[in-house]
Amino acid sequence: MSQAPMITPLIEKMARRDVITPIEREALANLLGATRRVAAGKALVEPGDRPNFSTFVVSGFCARFTLTPTGGRQLTQINIGGDFVDLHSLLMRQMDHGVVALADCVVAPAAHEDLRRLTQQHPHLTRLLWLETVVDAAIHRQWLVALGQQNAASRLAHLICELYLRLEAGGIASDLRFSLPMTQVDLGDVLGLTQVHVNRVLMDLRRQGLLDWKAGHVTVNDWEALARLGQFDPAYLRLQNDPV
Amino acid sequence: MSQAPMITPLIEKMARRDVITPIEREALANLLGATRRVAAGKALVEPGDRPNFSTFVVSGFCARFTLTPTGGRQLTQINIGGDFVDLHSLLMRQMDHGVVALADCVVAPAAHEDLRRLTQQHPHLTRLLWLETVVDAAIHRQWLVALGQQNAASRLAHLICELYLRLEAGGIASDLRFSLPMTQVDLGDVLGLTQVHVNRVLMDLRRQGLLDWKAGHVTVNDWEALARLGQFDPAYLRLQNDPV
DNA sequence: CGTTTTCTTGAGGTAGGTCAAGCGCTGTGG
DNA sequence: CCACAGCGCTTGACCTACCTCAAGAAAACG
């Protein structure tokens, strides 16, 4: 195998947590079908869909969203390269939310049929995939804490910290800099704020010298202060070694 | 087996979704250890714990919570009889949150060792247990939408609708009435509101005739109106048949 | 280079927070 | 049987974080 298969970021993420055997690597590599490009702004999955495959993000940024009857939109998770956006659809067939590309993405399907066969033949890999969805839930809980208990600045700081660490873990960011192709409207839909207020808070963090954000590119100038403001503790991301 | 084993509510919940064989029922029934009583207000699990078992709720009400450095508390899920409160600790060893009894509870442990063996021997049961954690995540997402997009009255209405349907599905409630042993402070910690504001909103719903709430006992007088106010759509609870 | 999208800033409004006090249970001990 | 302590509920007065509406500036894009 001369070129790195698309699944590599996932295997690396898993290998940081536990030992993955060559056979398991092979099984994972065989899961993915033909890649597909999705333009920024397009939906990868619509709410209510019943896909017969789960979508894996090879590269790009996308987000899970729910639309409300009153015209609102809540983003419930940001997904980056190496994430499945709807692994849970293997078990919960009908999508309770949609997934939208925030930037141009490359994605690949993993047929539910193949995933189900994998759960029959590879219990350890099954647990590792299960862990992926468990970490999703932990991130959801952390966002609940942010929305329920933190003010706007604190929420924004927390989000930046989380995204940086996840991107760094995926080898997509380093040196406290990363590309973040989201508009302030998107950000508001994550944080439960209006675009106007996101802007004001962002301007404030810039003035305080905590971060720069220009042309979709973020630089964290003072990680300590940002993490303190966001009350950020990375334990919930489960990035350390701990075999399942 | 003359008396119903403690695991019955879980098996019933699963059987509503998929066929559970007698062998699988047996395997589930063998999971649970000796029951334990937990008094209202006591923690079942502390944040940061690394339990070697997952806790199953036989009866009672408990809630997952996160404390913030500023003295706040966010409840991220309500668990009732038939739920595991920390099934995910099988995979994510260190608890990212705690669990507290809201009312007196009876709980039973399922050793991680036994759960792990179950994942080796029963792929279908494994998928059903995985589904339990996936539904937890779907509930988290719904709460994110509530906290991010809905106002106080709407959030409260949504919570009541969700709790009633989950209790009804577990055979613990019927006829739009149920016991809800939570204080208004607890409710505020779920909804991201102060106790004072919870009270005002609650008084309002009572005045509008949508529900009664006396001595920990809730009666929904107008389900349609309450569901409309809460923008409640039960699909995310995944209560219907849909084999995994 | 014109059009559209995104960002920025101001002025004024409101949902929900804070602080404070009184009320009504329920349980407990004299 | 009563006193009273403790907890949870209720209400009022005032405050503030964030929202709404609006308009211009600056990027991004074809």
Q: What form of chain A results from the Cα inertia axes?
A: globular
Give the strand line-up of the largest sheet of chain A. Answer: 2-6-4-5
Mean pLDDT of chain A, to the nearest integer, reads: 93
| CATH class group of the largest domain in chain A | Mainly Beta
* Number of separate helices of chain A: 8
> How far is the first residue's CA from the last residue's CA of chain A?
28 Å
Number of strands of chain A: 10
Q: Which structural category do the helix and sheet elements of chain A fall into?
A: alpha+beta
CATH superfamily of the largest domain in chain A: Jelly Rolls
CATH architecture of the largest domain in chain A: Sandwich
Taken together, the total number of domains of chain A comes to 2
Taking the sheet with the most strands of chain A, its summary is:
4 strands, antiparallel
In terms of quaternary structure, the protein is homodimer
The third-level CATH topology of the largest domain in chain A is: Jelly Rolls
Kindly provide the radius of gyration of chain A, computed on alpha-carbon positions and rounded to a whole number of angstroms.
18 Å
Helix-strand sequence of chain A: HHEEEEEEEHHHEHHEEH
Strand content of chain A: 15-25%
Uncertain spans of chain A:
none
Largest interface: A-B, 51 and 51 residues
